[in-house]
Every structure is written in C-alpha cells, then in structure tokens.
C-alpha cells in the first residue's frame, strides 16, 4: 500500500487577477477551490493514475471536513486525525500576468495526543509499503518529526519518499530515504549556490546521495528535471512543451508520477523519471491535477 502524510493540508484558493495592484481592491477573473497540501496532492494524482493509496495527516474544522470530502470524492482513502481546535488552512494562490504569488496559512492547534495517534497509524506499515512524507511542518509540531517518523520505521522495509526543504530534508538523509525531490532552488539553498541548468545540478544531487539519499530527483519547473539514481545512472529531460495554466501541485504530481512509474515498471528508473516529468507538466498545463490520459499524451511527446 502507498501512504502519504500531510501535516498541514489545506484548501487551495487559486485566483486569477488581471493586473494585481497592491493596496487596491482587486477582483478575480477566475477562481477555483481545490484540496491541497503536498501529500494530499500526491494522493490525488496517484489515484488519478490508478494507484490505490491512503492519505494520513491532520485535519480540523469545516475546511478539514471539506478536504476529506473532496479526497474521498476522488477515490482516495482519507484516514486523517481530526484535531479539535482551529481549522485546516486556506492557502491563497494569486495568478496575475503569469506570475504566481502564494500566501500559505498556519493551520490548526495539533496536540501531542494527535501526534501519538498519527504514530499509531504509521506503526501498522509493513515491508513493501511506500510512505510519502511531504510539506512544511506547522510550528506546533516537533521540528524533527520527519526524523522521528523515519527512525520509528527504520528496518521495517518501508520505502520512504521525502519532499521537504532545507533542514527538514537534510536531517532525514542519514535514514537513507528511497527518494527525495528538491527543486533546483531548494537544492541550491542547501549548498548556497544558484543552480539554473540541468548539468549544474548533477554534482549537488550526488552530494545528497553521498549523505544518504538513495535516489535524488531534482525538479526544475520549465527546465525539466534530473534524476541521480542509486544504480549510478543519471537521467535528465527538458520539460514537455505546453501552456502553463496553474503550476501549484506540479512538484507533488511529479513525486506521484515517479512512484507510479517505478511500481508499474518494476523499478525501472528511466520509466519512473519520464512518468514523473510528464505528470508534473500535465498538472502545470491544467487547472486541476494531472489525469492519466493527460500524462500519457505528454509521454508520447518526449
Ligand atoms: N512551466 C512549466 N512548464 C513545463 N513543465 C513544468 C512547468 N512547471 C513545472 N513543470 C513540471 O513539473 C515538475 C515539477 O515542477 P517544479 O515547479 O520544479 O516543482 P515544485 O513545485 O516542487 O517547485 C517539473 O520538473 C516539470 O516537469
Ligand atoms: O506545506 P507547504 O510548504 O506550506 O505547502 C503547501 C502548498 O504546496 C502545495 O502542496 C503545492 O506544492 P507544489 O507546487 O510544490 O507541488 C499546495 O497545494 C499547498 O498550498
């Protein structure tokens, strides 16, 4: 079974404003409310690609209930801890003149007993399962929760995928995650360098591999992606061509595509990589997250 964990799910309120002006009243030209948060997006895309999975994490309030309802509607098994106080966040994504600006909220007051309840669910994972942990950790949670989860599952044969930034990512490396997916900016921040070309990211991805990551997938938005795999192979691809409609969730979609492609091909890195790239781009080219036909159409072009 594939599991995702989202510590701070949200509703993404995605609006298009023609010519946003700060300090004035702006009106939307288009708006959409979608369930989100990194693991939630991964779960939806996995389901769209035909892979059963269970979404774990914390939800609260009417927004939390709506996230769970929407997830179930897409066929994802939503198995969240319900937090008593506060509400799941609404993250605002403003698209104006092709520039995307994001305002991400804080989230509910998760209590220590809620965290214990999550650990209890994770304790049921067994050999052969895949766990995808992604997204920011709200300030009410222990800052080392990623490591705690990985330490708890160590030696149990669970493949763990981590999509997080900076310290969250660096600190899990000793636990040998199966896959990490920084984007080129996040990878550059770790080493204090600017990485804009695919060839430039390879040595830095390899450094993260030396520190413990088994496979490192670096996404580069319109530049495509690079994979440094544990068998020593290096894969790179430009992004498929298309019109970008909404790139929120493109990175999460790439993770879902990689995991789906890896399972479908019995562990072929090139297949998983291409599926990851095309799934990311298919999401960027539509308002909603990628569907299987959209991904297959792009696979035929690269
Ligand atoms: N502008 C774009 N054009 C084509 N593909 C894109 C674009 N933005 C994202 N993608 C696809 O989605 C993947 C992940 O996007 P990226 O923006 O790098 O992730 P993140 O959201 O994690 O920063 C890219 O590697 C690419 O395949
Ligand atoms: O947990 P964070 O870092 O605040 O990110 C949450 C946001 O990221 C998203 O999961 C999208 O992530 P990506 O664009 O990186 O795939 C949104 O759905 C959500 O609003």
TrEMBL record:
UniProt enzyme class: transferase
Keyword Transferase: yes
Pfam families assigned to the protein according to its UniProt record, in alphabetical order: PfkB
PROSITE patterns with a match to the protein in the record: PFKB_KINASES_2
Catalytic activity: beta-D-fructose 1-phosphate + ATP = beta-D-fructose 1,6-bisphosphate + ADP + H(+)
Any single Gene Ontology cellular-component annotation: cytosol
InterPro entries: 1-PFruKinase, Carboh/pur_kinase_PfkB_CS, PfkB_dom, Ribokinase-like, Tagatose/fructose_Pkinase
One biological process term in Gene Ontology: small molecule metabolic process
GO molecular function: 1-phosphofructokinase activity; ATP binding
Domain Carbohydrate kinase PfkB: 7-288
Domain of life: Bacteria
Record carries keyword Translocase: no
Entry keyword set: ATP-binding, Kinase, Nucleotide-binding, Transferase
Transmembrane segments: none
EC assignment: 2.7.1.56
Function (record text): Catalyzes the ATP-dependent phosphorylation of fructose-l-phosphate to fructose-l,6-bisphosphate.
Family note: Belongs to the carbohydrate kinase PfkB family.
Protein name: 1-phosphofructokinase
